Amino acid sequence: MFKIFRNSSRIRVSGDFAVSVFRKYQNKYLKEITNDFNGKCLNVGSHPLEKDKEGKRYEDYFSDGQYHTLDINYSSDEPYHFQLDLSDVKLQFKFDLVLCMSVLEHVKNPFLVADNLSAMLKTGGRLYLTLPFFYPIHKDPEGRYSDYWRFTDDSIAVLFPDLEIEWIHHIPSVIRSVRDRNKYWSEDRTISGYCILLSKPERNGI
């Protein structure tokens, strides 16, 4: 059984960058899972120069690993960037780690994309998934992407039946428990989103 962690809203937000609590936790757990990582990573919905909203490039999390990016809307001459559609992507090799951070809510068919993400993983590979829940609608003003979905932690097992959940972190929201229907409007249920780590197990000795 995987672990569920409910985080406190007491996380320091300071500095020159306007960073949401959700993003702070996303970066915190990314740092943890990439510590001592030396394999091959793919960051989907990202480009080679993208930063983590706290001033650090995502590539800098992978000083010992091989870092790739994938984004249909970004053209680059970088050899490790793929300008491909996540809904119709076929790569010739697989990855030890795939990052899908605040992306799944922007795709039209999350079931198809979830299947593609699973197929990108090596056996034993891991998927780091972050998903907003109680979070503002956020779409690109230039129309490059829309905002379609919000997911619960129960939906992850449905989207990724071939992967095993290692842990789920509930990220706190500014919304608090209210008197009306207190049973439902509790702090555990009004979270801003999730940080989730999944892994691809061996199947039938494969």
UniProtKB/TrEMBL annotation:
<dbReference type="GO" id="GO:0008168">
    <property type="term" value="F:methyltransferase activity"/>
</dbReference>
<dbReference type="Pfam" id="PF13489">
    <property type="entry name" value="Methyltransf_23"/>
</dbReference>
<keyword id="KW-0489">Methyltransferase</keyword>
<dbReference type="InterPro" id="IPR029063">
    <property type="entry name" value="SAM-dependent_MTases_sf"/>
</dbReference>
<protein>
    <submittedName>
        <fullName>Methyltransferase family protein</fullName>
    </submittedName>
</protein>
<dbReference type="GO" id="GO:0032259">
    <property type="term" value="P:methylation"/>
</dbReference>
<keyword id="KW-0808">Transferase</keyword>
